[in-house]
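Batch queue: ligand-bound targets. Current item pairs a single chain with flavin-adenine dinucleotide. No template structures supplied; prediction is de novo from sequence plus SMILES. Inputs echoed for audit trail.
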Amino acid sequence: MKKRIVIVGGGFAGVKLAHELSNDKAFEVTLITPRNRFEYHGAMYRSATGKSPLEVVVPLAEIFDDSLNVRVELDAVVELRPQTKEVEGESGRVYSYDYLVMAVGYEVNFFNIPGMALHAEHMYDIASAIKLRHRLVGAFRSAGKKPVSVSVIGAGPTGVEIASDIRNFSRVVAGMHGIEGLSVNVRLIEASDHVLPMLSAKSSKTAEKRLKELDVEVLLGSKVTAAAADSIDVDGKTLHSDVTIWTAGNRANGLFASYPDIFTIGDRGRVQVSEYFNANSPDIFVIGDAADTKYAGMAQTAIHNAIALADNLKRASNQQKWLSYAPKQPEYVVPIGGEWALLETEDGVIDGSEGWHARREADRWVLENFLVYDVAHKHWQRGERLAEF
Ligand SMILES: Cc1cc2nc3c(=O)[nH]c(=O)nc-3n(C[C@H](O)[C@H](O)[C@H](O)COP(=O)(O)OP(=O)(O)OC[C@H]3O[C@@H](n4cnc5c(N)ncnc54)[C@H](O)[C@@H]3O)c2cc1C
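Prediction returned. Tokens below.
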């Protein structure tokens, strides 16, 4: 009997798991996802600052066209029925499983800061990245003689990447639309006292120096308490902000809270899982950003989770013993303005153009996880081209 694997979520973890089980006769795989595409988040800041979105967007058909046992269902799961081993989608369709894998990632969280959800842009999917690009282009084109003020909230990798490329982008837009004398001020606001707080103190310092060289104003130890259409409140002061970009928070997918018996949310807002990724059920698993594993929150970790779970599902089908998950330390490689990046590995830190080459190789590595080399290369190269705007 084939095992029916239902995977909820078509991001890094879900797509990688389906890809690993593809054309394995022991499994019948259903991938439930609201979108017919995989989105490569790592290149999202480039789409927001003018590069082609075709690097970010990979049609699922390109990934699964030759997969005889993977069915992609365009749907979003709204209900779990563990007693009958079924889930229901918003379409009303019901999917039966032997094993259910929740790979639903994280959701953007504005922490109820007044005005933030309404006025700030974010970059959680390609639609929001393109909306941000439109907003920036609109602000640059309508600036007149006034400087454009852009505030980026959160100095993790996403905040640093986008903040450091905005002024470059403004030059491209100015050239394209014949705007003379365009002046843009970028500020990056972070509640902790380091940029890139997850990296070593040495990397944080290097990144901060680079941001200052790029004329990005860095406000550390600062809290944003409100946002309006053209301002933000920071540490009790109201600052003008034509475009506000939120990169500072996310939270567990809302679905988990409805099933407290199955999913226990830990301190980090992720679902607690066993060494085999089980939630509080032998046939329900959680992988990717949603799972509370070491190094969660990185695409590399989501991919590593998916490979480990696929391996165990295959072992189970061969009556072999399950293996405990062994976390793998990710490499951090953060672009900071143009073709310059900071790479931190267990062996040390590399920055500048060498770091940038490492970043481009990492981009290609991610795409090669899902696509044959030629197709991966085609998407990867599109990251070099400008979009139309
Ligand atoms: C802007 C940005 C830049 C990033 N850059 C990097 C980077 O450079 N390097 C790195 O390692 N990591 C990076 N990350 C983090 C990385 O993208 C995540 O760790 C990774 O996406 C996690 O994979 P996932 O499969 O758990 O979640 P996701 O990739 O977010 O996928 C979750 C999927 O589940 C779907 N879904 C949600 N609810 C439902 C439902 N009810 N039914 C069906 N489907 C559902 C969503 O639509 C989504 O497609 C970045 C993240 C962002 C936002």
